Amino acid sequence: MLRHPSFPASTVDSEDSLVDISTAPTTPDGSFSFSPVLQALKLQDALEDAASGRGKQSSTSLNAAMQSSNNGGVKNICCVGAGYVGGPTAAVMAFQNPHIKVTVVDRDPKRIAQWKTKHLPIFEPGLDSILRIARDGSKQFGFYNEPSRPGSLDSMSNASSAESECESQCGEHRDEISIPARTPNLFFTTEVSKSISEADIVLIAVNTPTKMRGIGGGRATDVTALEAVTREIAIHAKPGAVLVEKSTVPCRTAEIIQDTLRVHRPHQTFEVLSNPEFLAAGTAINDLLVPDRVIIGSSPTPAGHRAAAILASVYAAWVPRERIVTMNVWSSELSKLVANSMLAQRISSINSISAICEKTGGDIDEVAKSIGMDPRIGDKFLKSGIGFGGSCFRKDILSLVYLAETLGLDEVAEYWTQVLTVNEWQRTRFVRRVVRCLNGTLVGKKLAVLGYAFKPSTDDTRESPALECIKMLLEDCPREISVFDPYCEPSVVRDEIRKLVGDHVLKENGGNIEVYADAYQACSDAHAVLIMTECDQFRTSPPSNSSPKLGGLPPKQVKPKKTPVDPRPFQRLEPTESEILALQKYLASAYSVQDPLQRFENEPACEEGCEKCEGEMSKTVVLDEKRDERLDWAKIAYHLQKPRWVFDGRNVVDGEVMHSLGVRVEGIGKVGWGGIGGR
Ligand SMILES: NC(=O)C1=CN([C@@H]2O[C@H](COP(=O)(O)OP(=O)(O)OC[C@H]3O[C@@H](n4cnc5c(N)ncnc54)[C@H](O)[C@@H]3O)[C@@H](O)[C@H]2O)C=CC1
Ligand SMILES: O=C(O)[C@H]1O[C@H](OP(=O)(O)OP(=O)(O)OC[C@H]2O[C@@H](n3ccc(=O)[nH]c3=O)[C@H](O)[C@@H]2O)[C@H](O)[C@@H](O)[C@@H]1O
């Protein structure tokens, strides 16, 4: 049951929220007035400058002010939860704020140990470079502030002598930029209470899954982990520390946190902010470095606004001021659930239309393209497929449904439930189609599943649509289901299947599921290939004579990958970390060098007998190589059983190309091999 609101529900705050300069209320023990972070008056000046436009470049003005005010008084951040959100978020915060010590704590010692080595517990493109600088520190280095000369890396370490020679001959002067060394400012530990007790800001980034049993079971959010962390914070947080919900939580969770704090610390006041995370798996680092928006919800009091300003000061090191949006805490908590629900709703909407396409002759990619060109609709999240997976969409919709139910809004609950119903139906439709096309029986047949994670570019396998399909397919007793994913280590996939389906289904235990590190082995001799993720590696190249449809690229054609451009010359001779990162990316891509600026320190050595280094290393190398390699469909087709079938659950292969290889293709939202009303 929701409590009666004890905070007035204000409308979304204007910029003023961040620049409120009223004094903090005096608490019995004066915790606010002793809080270093709440005394960051220079920061307030900077924020006022930014809001009034006095600071020409808001980020520059804020950065400069924060340098002088020591990052608004924030010296120490603790992030509780070293998962997919906590790890990358803390890494980017530390990377962009070299003067703040960021400590990530987790109760799971294995996870913490992995974060300290080169074998990170998660795979995210770009994470490694950020982490190596924030966690390991970086060397002093330099470069010229002008685009590279052809064929030259132009880093100062090898250019200084050439410079003087060149200058003496042609008199040309080239600006040199020297970047000082950095000491490590990102740490990982299991010492939860100690780290909390030292922090000016505590981020809560623990898991908030769906409650499995009891009241609200199957719908409500399980806040057990959050409650445990809140208790730790209530006991150990230093007076005046700013507490931040980073986890996705039910609306009004801040009130529960406040309640716990009041019980344990009746004479002190803490501010609880909502700062939901919008990163997506596979693009987490880019999403964090260039966020569409940073939402900060606070209580509508001067102290709440001041706490929001403190957190904003940390983000302002790299996020433009206009993208930091403040609002009341309930709006902020709710907007995270709504954002995910709306994104998922678009997927279910387009998937519902895909079923109509299959029966009418429409092509779902063409429909999506044409409606997406209407700017009121937009072209994102209109990709039809076997439905959404991942750890969040389903649980967040369920949380919204539960909220609506508890508020007596049954029609609202029903509306959002339908998004989940269509999602499950879409997977079932796909599996039925496979079985129907294979003459209604899978007995004696081998099915190859390409893509196991819930989306490309991630090894996150939580709520994998592929696994849901595999479970249904197993009911029809195929001879073998072989699985390949370019981003997942086979042993991890095997462990997951073991945990979620049972030991007995794995081939090593006499079952019929085998996980391969090689796509060709997985597909060899198969009666059908099932594509489950939208991996670029699975795409076919378009036939050379294909003409663009609908005035643009045919939907299946691969967009060329963006090649980074040299970001130099920089406006200022003190470039930001983001600018240096852009340069590093450009040089790494242009010269195929891992550390073109030579700024990385050595990575920490693994403990002796590290199983990743020993046993799995060879597999990892194979996977790394496979990640960028496009599949040779001719080779796969050659080794398929006849008739050759490909069930394209993500519409990544070109029907014409596959047809020329003698393959029958069934795509989502497309008329299949048997024509309208076919199999
Ligand atoms: N995974 C994603 O892409 C996104 C997730 N979110 C939200 O962020 C939150 C975290 O999600 P993930 O990082 O994916 O979860 P995760 O399961 O990967 O990580 C959570 C971590 O919290 C730790 N933890 C749990 N209780 C603890 C305690 N009492 N003390 C210390 N550590 C504790 C766990 O050991 C685990 O390592 C969730 O609320 C999720 O909905 C939000 C945006 C994106
Ligand atoms: O709260 C979260 O956890 C995150 O959930 C999603 O991110 P994520 O689940 O990592 O990945 P998405 O890119 O959103 O994809 C989710 C699923 O939808 C599917 N999808 C996505 C887009 C589309 O057009 N069609 C489609 O079927 C994907 O294949 C995938 O299975 C949101 O995009 C993030 O903003 C949010 O922070």
TrEMBL record:
<feature type="binding site">
    <location>
        <position position="106"/>
    </location>
    <ligand>
        <name>NAD(+)</name>
    </ligand>
</feature>
<dbReference type="InterPro" id="IPR028356">
    <property type="entry name" value="UDPglc_DH_euk"/>
</dbReference>
<dbReference type="GO" id="GO:0006024">
    <property type="term" value="P:glycosaminoglycan biosynthetic process"/>
</dbReference>
<protein>
    <recommendedName>
        <fullName>UDP-glucose 6-dehydrogenase</fullName>
        <ecNumber>1.1.1.22</ecNumber>
    </recommendedName>
</protein>
<dbReference type="GO" id="GO:0003979">
    <property type="term" value="F:UDP-glucose 6-dehydrogenase activity"/>
</dbReference>
<dbReference type="InterPro" id="IPR028357">
    <property type="entry name" value="UDPglc_DH_bac"/>
</dbReference>
<dbReference type="GO" id="GO:0006065">
    <property type="term" value="P:UDP-glucuronate biosynthetic process"/>
</dbReference>
<feature type="binding site">
    <location>
        <position position="248"/>
    </location>
    <ligand>
        <name>NAD(+)</name>
    </ligand>
</feature>
<comment type="similarity">
    <text>Belongs to the UDP-glucose/GDP-mannose dehydrogenase family.</text>
</comment>
<dbReference type="InterPro" id="IPR014027">
    <property type="entry name" value="UDP-Glc/GDP-Man_DH_C"/>
</dbReference>
<feature type="binding site">
    <location>
        <position position="462"/>
    </location>
    <ligand>
        <name>NAD(+)</name>
    </ligand>
</feature>
<dbReference type="InterPro" id="IPR017476">
    <property type="entry name" value="UDP-Glc/GDP-Man"/>
</dbReference>
<dbReference type="GO" id="GO:0005634">
    <property type="term" value="C:nucleus"/>
</dbReference>
<dbReference type="Pfam" id="PF03720">
    <property type="entry name" value="UDPG_MGDP_dh_C"/>
</dbReference>
<keyword id="KW-0520">NAD</keyword>
<feature type="binding site">
    <location>
        <position position="336"/>
    </location>
    <ligand>
        <name>substrate</name>
    </ligand>
</feature>
<feature type="active site" description="Nucleophile">
    <location>
        <position position="392"/>
    </location>
</feature>
<comment type="pathway">
    <text>Nucleotide-sugar biosynthesis; UDP-alpha-D-glucuronate biosynthesis; UDP-alpha-D-glucuronate from UDP-alpha-D-glucose: step 1/1.</text>
</comment>
<feature type="binding site">
    <location>
        <position position="208"/>
    </location>
    <ligand>
        <name>NAD(+)</name>
    </ligand>
</feature>
<dbReference type="InterPro" id="IPR008927">
    <property type="entry name" value="6-PGluconate_DH-like_C_sf"/>
</dbReference>
<dbReference type="Pfam" id="PF00984">
    <property type="entry name" value="UDPG_MGDP_dh"/>
</dbReference>
<feature type="region of interest" description="Disordered">
    <location>
        <begin position="540"/>
        <end position="571"/>
    </location>
</feature>
<feature type="domain" description="UDP-glucose/GDP-mannose dehydrogenase C-terminal">
    <location>
        <begin position="448"/>
        <end position="560"/>
    </location>
</feature>
<feature type="binding site">
    <location>
        <position position="395"/>
    </location>
    <ligand>
        <name>NAD(+)</name>
    </ligand>
</feature>
<dbReference type="InterPro" id="IPR014026">
    <property type="entry name" value="UDP-Glc/GDP-Man_DH_dimer"/>
</dbReference>
<keyword id="KW-0560">Oxidoreductase</keyword>
<dbReference type="GO" id="GO:0000271">
    <property type="term" value="P:polysaccharide biosynthetic process"/>
</dbReference>
<dbReference type="GO" id="GO:0051287">
    <property type="term" value="F:NAD binding"/>
</dbReference>
<dbReference type="InterPro" id="IPR001732">
    <property type="entry name" value="UDP-Glc/GDP-Man_DH_N"/>
</dbReference>
<dbReference type="InterPro" id="IPR036291">
    <property type="entry name" value="NAD(P)-bd_dom_sf"/>
</dbReference>
<feature type="binding site">
    <location>
        <position position="389"/>
    </location>
    <ligand>
        <name>substrate</name>
    </ligand>
</feature>
<feature type="binding site">
    <location>
        <begin position="381"/>
        <end position="385"/>
    </location>
    <ligand>
        <name>substrate</name>
    </ligand>
</feature>
<dbReference type="Pfam" id="PF03721">
    <property type="entry name" value="UDPG_MGDP_dh_N"/>
</dbReference>
<feature type="binding site">
    <location>
        <position position="455"/>
    </location>
    <ligand>
        <name>substrate</name>
    </ligand>
</feature>
<feature type="region of interest" description="Disordered">
    <location>
        <begin position="1"/>
        <end position="25"/>
    </location>
</feature>
<feature type="binding site">
    <location>
        <position position="111"/>
    </location>
    <ligand>
        <name>NAD(+)</name>
    </ligand>
</feature>
<dbReference type="InterPro" id="IPR036220">
    <property type="entry name" value="UDP-Glc/GDP-Man_DH_C_sf"/>
</dbReference>
